[in-house]
From TrEMBL:
The keyword Transmembrane helix applies. It catalyses: ATP + protein L-histidine = ADP + protein N-phospho-L-histidine. Coiled coil: none annotated. This is histidine kinase. The chain crosses the membrane at residues 358-377. It comes from Myxococcus virescens. Pfam families: HATPase_c (PF02518), HisKA (PF00512). One of its GO terms (molecular function) is phosphorelay sensor kinase activity. The keyword Nuclease does not apply. Its EC number is 2.7.13.3. SUPFAM superfamilies: ATPase domain of HSP90 chaperone/DNA topoisomerase II/histidine kinase, Homodimeric domain of signal transducing histidine kinase.
Length: 607
């Protein structure tokens, strides 16, 4: 068998090899398509992220450039607003402005102011510039007391020249200048423009320099005062400004904005960077850093709107800033462009790849199934041919044996009659052999007609006891061994084809006699109340593993007496007869002590 199947196996293996190569190539093509599509998606995502990164970087640079005039103005003018601006030079934060007050607890400026107002302030040395300054202050005060406008103007100019020539300690200069301007506002008739310049804007000193106004002077020299002195002087300057009609709101705002601590920003930067604390910073060399406060969330929302308007993002797309680092270099901002379009495209790509992979797998499974079916079909074909060959040989033997017996008996009968010898049993023996031959032919013809569907059963009431009686008579005629038939069928009758049922019981009985080593052969037919009929014998039995195979055509079970007469069609024909009636036939029990067959007829059984 294996040798005959070898060409089929070789052909299947070669076919599998070619199919595996083809399916593998197809799968590689599908994988390449998926990778190319994924690369295209990644390339588009990367292009959008580069656009978003460049656009956000340009927005930050534009924001700083737009703030540059305000930043330069705030660096020069202490009254200029500095909100949202950052400036650091030589490691010192200039903007936002720091308080930097003297940490002492004394109030020398306040005490000196009180002394000046009371006229008790004295210089330590006669040649000290402070002594000269005190003299000028008193001169202005005396001129104002006399109401001499010209003298007070001359004395004030002299005082201003002395301030431009000598730089005194802030705790002396600012209180002294404040006292002079308060006296001028209280007792004089100052020119409004001059008073505005002295309190706020300042005056040119005639030497390409400038004398700062009192408001700017206090803010510029805030580090020279203790917190108490600064607050005292600020209150006095605000009161003076209100009396002189000079704006003081921005002065108060700048004083309130003074921070006690520098901003916690990085000391070193690799380049322009976005700081998570809300600042965009640009280093300018020499430890010089400029920056502007930014709202990264608002910038990202603006960028998202712009990309949506340009058609680069869907309505539900979003630009997000990734990473948790405190400092994000502008050249490598970790931006992510997220949109459901990517998820849909990724999902569609994955589904297409799974579908194609599934098709390849299905083709492989289908090919395996076809190959398996082809192999099984070939095996069954060869097996059928073997069984057919065995069947032909068996039938030929079965036909030749009774024919030879008939010929021999006939010749012997002829010879004995010619000799006048007694030959009374020879006709019966000839008839028995002919009957066996007829039974074999009837089995073959009946099996063929039923197998081809050409036998239409003639259903009619059949009494089971009559079938048993006929079977008993047949057994007495053709059985060569003693047979004891016991029946318990009562008055059961079946709606069936009587000829087929007789053939069925005859086959079961002949098998029981053929596959039996006991004498007598005992048979029992029992009709049960639910319509089942059991046929039992005391033969050699059927192994349980072979119960179903025993009903296959052309099958004679191994080790069960291949020398016994038969064609291998008896049980197969019996099962087909039961199927024609809509019933079943099975082995109910079997052992070396015998076998019991169970016939189950449909519900048309009557009693």
């Amino acid at each position: 068998m294996l040798r005959r199947l070898l060409p089929t196996l070789i052909a299947l293996l070669l076919g599998f090899a070619g199919l595996a190569w083809g399916l593998g190539s197809l799968q590689r093509i599908f994988a390449t398509e998926r990778d190319d599509a994924q690369a295209s998606l990644d390339s588009r995502r990367e292009a959008l992220e580069q656009y978003a990164r460049a656009s956000l970087a340009q927005s930050l640079r534009d924001r700083l450039e737009a703030a540059r005039p305000a930043l330069e103005a705030a660096a020069l003018d202490p009254l200029a607003p500095a909100t949202g601006l950052y400036l650091r030079e030589r490691g010192t934060q200039l903007l936002p402005r720091l308080a930097l007050h003297d940490t002492g607890e004394d109030t020398p400026a306040k005490e000196r102011y009180a002394g000046l107002r009371a006229g008790t302030e004295r210089a330590d040395e006669a040649e000290d510039p402070w002594a000269e300054r005190l003299a000028l202050i008193r001169e202005v005060d005396r001129a104002l007391s006399r109401g001499d406008r010209r003298a007070s103007t001359v004395a004030l100019m002299a005082l201003l020249q002395h301030r431009a020539q000598y730089v005194l300690a802030s705790t002396r200069d600012v209180p002294g200048f404040l006292v002079v301007l308060e006296s001028l506002a209280e007792r004089g008739d100052p020119v409004p423009q001059l008073m505005h310049a002295l309190v706020r804007d300042g005056l040119a000193d005639g030497r390409s320099g400038r004398l700062d106004g009192l408001q700017r002077l206090l803010l510029l020299r805030r580090a020279r005062f203790t917190k108490a002195d600064f607050d005292f002087l600020r209150e006095r300057i605000v009161a003076l400004s209100m009396k002189a009609g000079v704006p003081a709101a921005d002065f108060e705002a700048r004083a309130a904005e003074l921070a006690s601590e520098p901003l916690p920003l990085p000391r070193t930067l690799p380049g322009p960077a976005l700081v998570r604390a809300g600042w965009y910073l640009e280093p300018r060399g020499g430890n010089h850093v400029r920056g502007v406060a930014v709202d990264s969330g608002a910038l990202l929302q603006s960028l998202t709107r712009e990309m949506r308007e340009r058609g680069l993002l869907e309505a539900d797309g979003q630009v997000r800033l990734l990473a948790d680092a405190e400092v994000l270099p502008l050249a490598d901002l970790p931006l992510s462009v997220d949109t459901p379009e990517w998820a849909r495209a990724q999902g569609a790509l994955a589904r297409r790849y799974r579908l194609k992979t599934g098709m390849v797998a299905a083709c492989a499974v289908l090919a395996l199934g076809i190959a398996a079916l082809a192999f099984v079909a070939q095996h069954r074909k060869l097996r059928f041919l073997e069984l057919k060959s065995d069947f032909v040989a068996t039938v030929s033997h079965e036909l030749r044996t009774p024919l030879a017996s008939i010929r021999l008996l006939a010749e012997t009968l002829e010879w004995r009659l010619a000799e006048g010898t007694d030959a009374r049993d020879y006709p019966a023996r000839i008839v028995r052999e002919a009957d066996g031959l007829g039974f074999l032919v009837e089995n073959l013809l009946s099996f063929n007609r039923i197998d081809k569907g050409r036998w239409v059963p003639k259903l009619a009431p059949v009494r089971l006891d009559e079938l048993v009686a006929q079977l008993r008579k047949d057994l007495e005629f053709w059985s060569k061994v003693p047979v004891e038939l016991e029946a318990d069928v009562g008055d059961f009758s079946l709606r069936a084809d009587g000829q087929l049922l007789r053939l069925l019981f005859s086959n079961l009985a002949r098998n029981a006699c053929a596959y039996n080593t006991r004498s007598p052969v005992r048979l029992r037919i029992e009709a049960l109340s639910d319509g089942r009929v059991r046929f039992s014998d005391n033969g050699v039995g059927i192994p349980q593993a072979q119960w179903e195979r025993a009903f296959e055509e052309f099958v004679r079970l191994p080790g069960q007496g291949h020398d016994a007469p038969g064609s291998g069609l008896g049980l197969a024909l019996c099962r087909r007869i039961m199927r024609v009636h809509g019933g079943t036939l099975r082995v109910a029990a079997s052992s070396p002590e015998g076998t019991t067959f169970e016939l189950r007829f449909p519900h048309t059984v009557t009693t």
